[in-house]
Amino acid sequence: MNKKIPILLSLLFFIFIMWLQTSSIESVHQIIDELENIAYDWKIRANILTQHHKKFETSVVIVDVDDKSLAAEGRWPWPRDKLASLVQAIQAGGAAVITLDVIFPQKEINIASEVLDDLNKKNLIIQGLQPIFAKISPDFDYDIQLGHALLASDTVVGFGFNQEPTTVGNINPPLLTLTPKEDKYLDILHANGFIGVNPILAPNVKNMGFVNYAITEGILRRVPLLMEYHRGIYPSLALETARVYLLSNIQLVTAAYSNGRNLEGIKIGSTTIPTDKEAQAFIPFRGPSFTFPYYSATDVLHNRTSSKIFEGKIVYIGTSATGLADLKPTSVSNVFPGVEIQATITDGILKNDFWYKPAWALGAEVTITFSLGCILVLLYPFLGPRILIILTLAIPALIVYLDNLILQYTGFILSVFFPLVVTIALGVLNIIYGYLFESRHRKRLNDMFGQYVPKEHIDEMMKSSGNYGLHGENRDMSVLFSDIRGFTQISETISAEQLKEMLNEVLTPLTEVIFNTKGTIDKYIGDAIMAFWGAPLHDPDHAEHALTAALDMQDALKKLKPIIAERGWPPIKIGIGLNRGEMIVGDMGSKYHRNYTVLGDEVNLASRVEGLTKFYGVDIIVTEEIQRDKTQFVFRHLDRIRVVGKQQPTHIYEMICYKKDAAPELLNEIALSDNGFDLYLKKEWDKAKTIFQQLMEQYPNNKFYKLYIDRINEFKTNPPPADWDGTYVHTSK
């Protein structure tokens, strides 16, 4: 086949793929980014599936305002005195840091003060009530109660940035302040306003972190760890929680580029968190939703949890309850609690375990695509379709596997989208091109052999350069005949339609067995099958394959018994005969109809021994030629015979089962039977008869033993001639 055309087509296609990967056209770039994001999501899900079985240990736990808590404690938001009680219960458990994934922008109404004001407005104040209301008013100042609870330990509270230039409540001072120069070249996400903590609660909140997410294409993959507001740098809730836990400050890690300095990470203590230039980090998912330890808030409030579950831990308070709008779509799940995203980021910081895309990633991805593409452009056109298909499937699987290993052991996120595309696209292109030429060759081969051999043989012949002539040749082969016992009587008991259905039901699995053992169906003769092994493909193990087919055909018939009984058909048994020897194989017939078949005395012998299965009362009879040295099967010596049309006698055997399946009792029976037959050949009639009588008493349904007892009785009355060699002559076909 001329390789210039497929190489040229592959090269053009490869150039187009490289252009897509490096294109700066915005619309193309957006499409590619979306496809790469989808590929990233698949990769992360696959990584989670392979790693999720490992035991997950963490210092971060979640107290969850779940549906159970809302049902028990009332709808959200809860009064802040209840939240204060929740914080105090967690503090009592020895928590190291308590983080509330909640924003408190508005002060909570003091019911006592509100009632007193309302009475004053309506001049309904009763003498003596005012001092009472003034006295109890602090008991209803829940913001102060929550604030006191927050001051009692290390706590972090959430706030939110927005792009509108408006502010609500207060936020704490920034962790860092950028110089005008830094503010100019750093691309940290910028905010114009915020929703902070109400002025009553704010003085008691020592630590705050923003809860903003960066959702792209509707999927949450990365989160900002820092945001800039009026040149001040503020931490995310997860980063601030880790900072408080580690008792550390943060530093910006930058590197020089042609356009100035870009942010590459955030240093906290001895840990450097890799980020992009906008201070965003990939979420290092630990598993699907609810991988972290969750405890129901109502159980914590009422002391229904172990007293040590929070000891030394970071405890997030958040919600997974339905309808509270804190369930996010992520790479690993369409419904992922926002509080668990914060917990995941904090856990990643503590373990210094983050995924990230290094600055050199694009260059590495382009190099991988280019190198792989060059190899495949020159390799694929010279491969056959089978190898092409295998490589087109195996190389992407290997790429995905290696990419997953890189992610697990280094944290590098490399896009393998284009290496996968170039492998699959070039593979498919060459498969299609090759198929157009292969199909012509297949058609020629199928025109010659399609009516003679199974599809599997055609496939093998396609892979081989052998000469499969139809002119006829002598070849050592094995041949099999099978026949349904009593088919004439069966056909008289059921309708023609039922007979056709029954034959289809029986012949189909028997044919499958022959095909599965590399056999060729010669023809169907009514209820009979003729098959052979060793042509058109040479098969050095044709005898073993034919013997295997005979046993498997009997097993297949046994599996059909329930179906046959269910449909009310008569019980079906088949007799099988096998022989091996030199036969003529080729295309034979007339100019009107031809058949790829086998001829010769050895074929006729196989047909004759199949007919003898009824005479000896066995299922499978094989000749001595085909059974010789086949120790993996169990045989019983049946007879030494001469059949019609043959002058030379032959020994025949009953094929019973695989050696590995033979019970000790069966092997003992066969050994005794063979001993009896040897005595019979030596004309030691009494000894042989004693053995066969003993066997018949043990196995009264075995026709074979009675046959020899009758034959010995006849010989004792009418002895055979002196030159008798034990041959029994069968005079009928």
Computed over alpha carbons, the radius of gyration is 43 Å
Q: Approximately how much beta-strand content do the residues carry?
A: 15-25%
Average pLDDT figure? 87
Terminal-residue CA separation: 54 Å
Structural class: alpha/beta
Q: Tally the helices.
A: 23
Q: What characterizes the major β-sheet?
A: 9 strands, mixed
Tally the beta strands. 28
- Name the overall outline: elongated
* Poorly predicted parts: none
**Helix share bin:** 40-55%
Task: Supply database-style keywords.
alpha/beta, elongated, 28 strands, eight-stranded mixed sheet, nine-stranded mixed sheet, 733 residues
How is this structure best summarized?
With about 725 residues, this protein is of the alpha/beta class. Helix content is about 45%, strand content about 20%. Helix 21 packs antiparallel against helix 22.
Write up this protein.
This protein is an alpha/beta fold and 733 residues long. Helices cover 46% and strands 21% of the residues. It contains 23 helices and 28 strands. Strands 20, 21, 22, 23, 24, 25, 26, 27 and 28 form a 9-stranded mixed sheet that branches. Strands 1, 2, 3, 4, 6, 7, 16 and 17 form an 8-stranded mixed sheet that branches. Strands 5-11-10 form a 3-stranded antiparallel sheet. Strand 8 (214-216) and strand 9 form a beta hairpin. It is elongated and about 135 Å long. The model has no long low-confidence stretch (mean pLDDT 87).
